[in-house]
Amino acid sequence: MNKAVISGTGTYVPGEPISNSEVCSLADIKFDTEKLAAKTGIRYRHIAHLRGIDETTADFSTKAAASAIEAAGLTPDDIDLFIVGTDTPEYISPATAILVQGRLQKGEHNCGAFDVASSCASFTSALDVGARMVAYDPEIKHAVIVGVYNMPAFFRPGDAFGYSIFADGAGAVVLSKTDDKSDSGYITGHRLADGTQWNYIGVYSGGARQPITHERLEAEEWGLQLLNRLPGDRNVKLWPSFTEHLAAKAGLRLDDIDHFIFTQINASVIREVMKVLGQPENKALMIMDKYGYTGSGCVPMALDDGIKSGRVKKGDVVLTVASGAGLSVAGNIIRI
Questions:
Q1: What are the angstrom distances between the C-alpha of 216 and each of 25, 209, 210, 212, 295?
Q2: pTM of the predicted model, to two decimals?
């Protein structure tokens, strides 16, 4: 039986890292830098426009995808499917994945290209879709799945909350078809949604319901908006049961999981969740100290960091859980 295996990973972030204190200076904002670092673990981030870098979502995606393709020992022409998971696309239409395909393959190819938009769960949702397509479609031998975030492009001036937490970045994986009898490969995924929570945080203007108008711009009803305060304990309550269900679906015990990758927005929350799960903290991969919160980019970036650092090894089982506004949650289990 065919299955999808991860044959390459890659990361791209724009420019030099920006510390908590430097972001205050560059963005002309104020926040308690030490409190932020102690609670969330965020100490640095990359933000293209603060470094004067003219790059956006499609640029980040293309460079992360190219890195993953090279790591897999392939060329762009070997790729049969491009999926970009993001809620900060280059354009409303066409899909960012189409731009990535064009930039990498330079023209028409018999391949698919589409986006998956599920807030910050976009990559984990896309990975599940892509792995099943690779396994079951005979025309797809290799697929690139990108998770990318460019929320800083949607900040209004003076947004201390946004600049303190969110950052630019992209991670990518190449999935390759194999009938290898080894245990390596994509195992399963799980999803959860609650659309009654749509009006907490998001980018609400620019779509069909709220087109950009002069009046909306003057009222500062554009870009990233926090409409209602998110419950502080939401993920601590949600992630343990979701994780347990996902592991059970794969026929695994939590002790069988070598690495956990949760949405990289708050280190203290991840530590608390690991306690609830009865798992050692060092099983949780955390990269927010270097990259800030990169939304749908954070899970593949953490995976790439783990592999490139040697922490994640061949044969290891990785469980991912990503939560996004709306509410959307998706997770995966992969044996590397």
A1: 28, 12, 9, 6, 26
A2: 0.97
**Identity of the amino acid at 59:** D
At 108, which amino acid appears?
Answer: E
Within 13 Å and on the Cβ side, how many CA atoms surround 254? 18
pLDDT, tens only, 154-191: 999 999 999 999 999 999 999 999 988 888 999 999 99
Q: What is the pLDDT of residues 282-307, one digit of tens each?
A: 999 999 999 999 999 999 999 999 99
Number of other residues whose CB lies within 10 A of the CB of residue 52: 7
Domain extent listing, the chain: 3-178, 185-335
CATH class of the domain defined by 185-335: alpha beta
To the question of domain 3-178 being in CATH 3.40.47.10, the answer is: yes
Q: What is the largest CA-CA distance in the chain?
A: 61
Sheet holding 317-324, edge to edge: 185-197, 326-335, 317-324, 259-262
